[in-house]
Amino acid sequence: MRPASLKEYVAIARVDNWIKNLFMLPGMLFAFSVFHTPFSFLLCVKIIVGLLSICLIASANYVINEYLDAGFDKYHPLKHTRSSVITIINPKIIYSEYGILALIGLVLGYFISAKFLFATTVFLILGIIYNVRPFRSKDRVFLDVLSESINNPIRFIAGWFIFSPALGIPNSKWDLNWINTFPPVSIMIAYWMGGAFLMATERFAEFRLIDNPHVAGLYRKSFKIYNENSLLVSMFFYAITCAFFMGIFLVKERIELIVIFPFFALLFSWYLRIGLLNESPVQGSARLYTRKWFMLYLLLFVVLLCALLFIDIPWLHWFLKNANNY
Q1: Cα-Cα-Cα-Cα dihedral sign, residues 268, 269, 270, 272
Q2: pLDDT of residue 284
């Protein structure tokens, strides 16, 4: 094999996957609807710097992931062409690249706020737990999905911290102390379980694509225990748990969002349908973009979600109040 080129070291950082960090957007929007943070040039700078910070931390995690997974990715029908598999990777360069990306990401996070720095630090540590021995949670059945999908609520809370104040707002339900500048636990769990559903569906599609339990186990150790039925059951569990905590959040925090619930259910159902296809595109965000109608629906869903964060529907509050009388 030939030594990796500079272009391939850059590719290992997976800049094309930065699109996933748009999971920060709902956190920003919800925090804005709660705290009514005034727009200013400084806030715009914080948004850009915050996004860049999370993107760099994500790339640091991707670098260490691809390097440490090279011996496993060679068994995957799609990932066997990755740079780390087909070229000779210099570990000194890899660890330097990881360190530089992580350091810049953390420094940028520091300039946002102490809370944002905390979120980026947790994001980085979770990458180590997921990829590095003796932890390497990606090798452990069910924990692999849960430990990777928890990055979604970390992204949400990072977006939230860009807009949330350092202290609570006086004379409001958020005024008790600094802890009340954190997002509600219900939405965090819903976001986590929603991400777990997406990841479990990806695992299911991978398992079916490899179509050989022995080879699947060589690629991912958790596949030695997983099978199609256990993955399907776990997907059902994650989806139901997500819906349950989403319902709690809607009733307690923003009843207007109940309008989006049937569209939310359709989104999950449509994604599941795509996940059940042979050679399903859910295995990579770049491939999922080929499902144009699904992506259009996702865009319209996000627009509706954004609108409902700021549009009040009084009769829903009346319905919720009077429903307790029956």
Answers
A1: positive
A2: 62
